[in-house]
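QA checklist item 7 of 12: single-chain prediction sanity check.
[x] sequence parsed
[x] length recorded as 232
[x] structure emitted
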Amino acid sequence: MDPMDDSLIQLQVENGIATLTFNRPEKRNAMSDEMRGQFIHALERVAADKGIRALVLTGAGKGFCAGGDIAGMERRMSAPAGEIAFNGWHRQQRVHHTQTLLHTMPKPVIAAVNGAASGLGADTALACDFIIASEWASFTWSYIHRGIIPDGGGMYFLPRRVGLPKAKDLIFTGRKVDVDEALAIGIVDRKTSADRLVPDAQAWAAQLSKGSATALALSKTILNRSEEHTSE
């Protein structure tokens, strides 16, 4: 697969490991509608390419992803009467499709969190199989401050990582979690230095994906589903 390198999403593949970079650093990689479309396209390419064994997801600049793009939200709210609800519904469908692509990707996915992961950005990291973070990483489910609820899967993924009471604390308060607390409570799986973040994530991805791609895909699917079912 040829490298994909455009204004908002960069996708590079080396030795079977794909690295996808959010590339909107001047906005701390806030997810605009255009960026989401490119993100979906890149995830579909990665999922379909049998030469790719694993995916690393990171952000350019100082932030991982600052959540949803505020300017885009304002444009949707200023639409003519009768269109606001449809625009919101359409956007939510795209968000769910994106998170589902990450969660069901038939190969390992590692979020390499280089800075702030806020709102939808934090949810996006949780949709990955594993999270490795630098010393500059932080997480916040700040939806409560805007009078809304986590709409990127946070209410599904977060309790499964930290337990229900801690998830309630983080969602009800919207407080920031630094990398050391995130590591201690299970949001983050590994911590590394900023200069080693992406190489360490890529090395981990290579280690995870050495085995049979078919067996790995089936194991991931069954493990994801088994959490929702009893053994009977």
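[x] summary fact logged: The radius of gyration is 17 Å.
[ ] second reviewer sign-off
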